[in-house]
Amino acid sequence: MGEKTKKVIKTIKVDVDKCNGCRACEVVCSAFHATPKYSSNNPGRARIRVLHDPLRDIYVPVYAGEYVAAECMGRDKYVIDGKEYEECAFCRASCPSRDAFKEPDSGLPLKCDMCEGEEEPLCVKWCLADALTYEEREEEIEEQEEIEELEIGLEALAEKFGLDKIMDTVVRMSNKE
Ligand code: SF4
Ligand code: SF4
Asked: How large is the average pLDDT for residues 80-87?
């Protein structure tokens, strides 16, 4: 068991009834994560996507969650106001069975990082309909959880580029320092 440590838990509350489908959240997210920052915007690179059924005026923002190496065996199906949405439509995973939450050029997984370094998540700031609300609280956690996050990221890179290439790149980067 790892050491206990304090961690800030960040939450974005989504009020689906207030979302009007403007997609400002997708635009600002992709612009913030562009390299260099704000040099482009492509909602395909956003870590949030807004699913919609315009005829019924329903919009559901979904945040990019964890990378998973293999498709899961279960499937989720949602019915909202009588409309049945396709399988996995609201799943947050970056999963090999679909294109959602993958960087369009490299195919690398995208995950919401809560706009690391900003005072508040930019999607929340620019949601003028107040559909998104940001909250923070402190909790005690095992230190091991953070190491697991790093391992998941490395696993995704190794699968994409091969472990040897990752190791070569790390060696090259450390030689530059
Ligand atoms: S910015 Fe707000 S209202 Fe607009 S699509 Fe995103 S969540 Fe919905
Ligand atoms: S919190 Fe930041 S990274 Fe996450 S979806 Fe919103 S804008 Fe994108």
From this structure: 88
